[in-house]
Amino acid sequence: AKRQRDGKPRLFQQAQEDELEERLSLERELRHAIDHNELCLYLQPQVDADRQVIGAEALVRWQHPERGMISPGHFIPIAEETGLILPLGHWVLQEGCRLLGEWRHVPGLQGLQLSLNVSVRQFQQPDFADQVLSVIQQHDVPSERLTLELTESLLLSDPEGTIKKMQQLQHEGVSFALDDFGTGYSSLAYLKVLPLDTLKIDIAFVRDLALGMQATPIAATIIALAQSLGLRVVAEGVETDDQRLVLAQLGCHIYQGFLFGRPCTAAALSSAILEDGPA
Ligand code: C2E
Ligand code: CA
Ligand code: CA
Ligand code: CA
User: Fold this and answer.
1) Which of 65, 75, 185, 248 is most buried as measured by Cβ atoms within 10 A of its Cβ?
2) Where's the EAL domain (predicted)?
3) What are phi and psi of 138, to 5 degrees?
4) What distances in angstroms separate CA 19 from CA 14, 65, 108, 132, 182, one per listed residue?
């Protein structure tokens, strides 16, 4: 192949240019999407040992008019890099709280816990706690129903500020889950001082669980750790009954995964719960 001055094959450089162009147009379109209602919150159920739905995690989707449904793995990283995660995150907060406000008046839904993912950059805004509290107030949300999912990377830059903000929100009734636990920077010392309610076992540690296998030490350790700290533990990515059984044996009793339900619209989730009848 012919080479450019920088020594890269021409084809390779073309591919790089295409990728850059693709990212730029996604960024432009995402900006538009946030303002024009192309985003949608899907909900994935979280169930207890009796398979009763006790809550849901909100997972954002982008219903693109031409490209179809785009998954967050594709656009969240772009949103993070460009700062669009701030308006996007605020939209998620608004929409999630609007749902909680609706559920408040529906017997059968009013006890559900709703978890929202919060990006590091979003959480680190100086007025993040005030934003959350004002949206809670705006939608008349019972704050005990709201859980915010944070990741360990928050502790890298400003642990003291993080703890302060969490405490302020916890004081108002909001709960916190530590997401993807075990995949990032884990400081056991901070785990003790963070005002957490829940640890979420990452799908990576659930995937390998099978009956009679030895591959369980990480999941076992996380569950034991959560119990010793008095935290709830939620296993994500549970796809098989074997995985559920092993988790139950290890002492984890809240599950989320395709075995119990894929992410779906709020309408689909609530009709599934309401048709199922009262617990
Ligand atoms: P996450 O928070 O770890 O969310 C769990 C992901 O696992 C979701 O992917 C969910 O659809 C998927 N999942 C659930 N059960 C199963 C299962 O049984 N098997 C398998 N293979 N996968 C399962 P999704 O919806 O594509 O979201 C990907 C990531 O995008 C999320 O990972 C989260 O980090 C981010 N994300 C999603 N929504 C938001 C949001 O509103 N705000 C922010 N900041 N990030 C979001
Ligand atoms: Ca999550
Ligand atoms: Ca997760
Ligand atoms: Ca994950």
Assistant:
1) 75
2) 23-277
3) -55, -40
4) 9, 21, 47, 36, 32
Q: For a pocket test of ligand 1, which of 114, 117, 244, 264 has the largest count of ligand atoms closer than 8 A to its C-beta? A: 117
List, for residues 80-128, the tens digit of each pLDDT value.
999 999 999 999 999 999 999 999 999 999 999 999 999 999 999 999 9
Q: Give Cα separations from 68 to 25, 32, 62, 216, 268 (angstroms).
A: 15, 15, 8, 38, 20
Contact (Cβ atoms closer than 8 angstroms) between residue 153 and residue 186: no
Helix (H, G, I), strand (E, B) or coil at 200: strand
ipTM value for the complex: 0.97
Length of the chain: 279
Please give the distance, rounded to the nearest whole angstrom, from the Cα atom of residue 59 to the centre of ligand 1. Answer: 6
Residues whose CB falls within 8 Å of the CB of residue 33, separated by 6 or more in sequence, listed in order: 39, 62, 64
Provide the residues around ligand 2 (an ion) whose CB is within 5 A: 117, 149, 179
Query: Residue 224 to residues 80, 232, 251, 253: CA-CA distances in angstroms?
Result: 33, 11, 8, 13
In a 10 Å sphere around its CB, with 0-12 CB exposed, 13-18 middle and 19+ buried, how is residue 192 labelled? exposed
